[in-house]
Design goal:
The protein is of the alpha+beta class and about 270 residues long. It has one domain: 4-Layer Sandwich (Phosphatase 2c, domain 1). It has seven helices and 13 strands. The strands form two sheets. A seven-stranded mixed β-sheet has the order 2-1-3-13-12-9-10. Strands 4, 5, 6, 7, 8 and 11 form a six-stranded antiparallel β-sheet that branches. The two termini are about 15 Å apart.
Length: about 270
């Protein structure tokens, strides 16, 4: 399969795999927007689209002021650096997952190290979620409570698991899904980059992309302002991924999100 990336911001196609040429080319179009929002003085979110390395990443920093910004910036800088040769292991899912986990683990180690040597960065940390297209598959995962959603055939599915205390309580049956929506611990994380647990794997899952699929990578600033139903509606409403990313960010801001807001959209044609 030939997989081609088209960034809504750069307007360029990128061929990344020339195997199985008898199959039609899949095109990926993408867009993103990140804003400070109404309640923060600075934007601790970072996101990056790296077409030449087949990588989409969103990171949400924490630690206040420059610490959070630095942590998320390190994540989106260091992870792509470690994922430069995935095309060489197309078809070997175990090696691909191991490579992704190693890249995220490396970023985690560097963030922890900087936090130890620089007093101003002592409490730094960040979430991270990613979509990594390799061959004819997507590898999707993350650490923290940023999310990746898939819209397929009108059904919205969350493809990542929140590493929050609220999610842990939900999984153990201590609280109900309705209680989880506004639970007091929903923003308290037990795993994130910058913690010992941050390097223990990304729970990356393989997804076979289909024409018509739409994916959203977002910080919790999106889900703080809007729910799954509106996310689904907005993903389906417009065929321009850049406009959809903006619509999601605008809706979250209007919905009362009290955090930085970042949305990245990936459309499969």
């Amino acid at each position: 399969m030939i997989l081609s990336l088209l960034s809504a911001h750069h307007g360029k196609h990128l061929r990344i795999d020339a195997t199985r040429k008898e199959k039609p080319m899949i095109k990926i179009r993408s867009g993103h927007l990140s804003i400070t929002g109404n309640f923060r003085e600075n934007n601790e979110d970072n996101c990056v689209i790296v077409p030449e390395k087949n990588l989409f990443i969103v990171a949400d920093g924490m630690g206040g002021q420059s610490a959070g910004e630095r942590a998320s910036a390190l994540a989106v800088e260091l992870i792509p650096q470690k994922l430069s040769n995935l095309a060489d292991i197309v078809g070997d899912s175990e090696k691909i997952v191991a490579a992704v986990d190693e890249a995220v683990g490396h970023a985690n180690s560097e963030i922890m190290a900087l936090g130890e040597i620089d007093p101003e960065m002592h409490s730094m940390g960040t979430t991270v979620v990613f979509v990594v297209p390799v061959g004819d598959e997507f590898y999707i995962g993350g650490v923290g409570d940023s999310r990746v959603y898939q819209l397929r055939g009108g059904t919205l599915t969350q493809l990542t698991t929140d590493h929050s205390l609220t999610q842990a309580l939900l999984e153990h049956g201590t609280i109900t899904p309705e209680e989880a929506v506004n639970h007091k611990y929903r923003n308290v994380l037990y795993r994130y980059l910058g913690s010992k647990e941050g390097g223990t794997g990304t729970q990356a899952r393989q997804v076979k992309p289909q024409a018509g699929d739409r994916y959203l990578l977002c910080s919790d600033g999106v889900t703080d302002g809007i729910g799954d139903e509106l996310i689904s509606d907005l993903l389906a409403k417009n065929d321009d991924p850049k406009e959809v990313a903006k619509a999601i960010v605008d809706a979250a801001q209007e919905g009362g999100s009290k955090d930085n807001i970042t949305a990245m959209t990936v459309f499969v044609d």
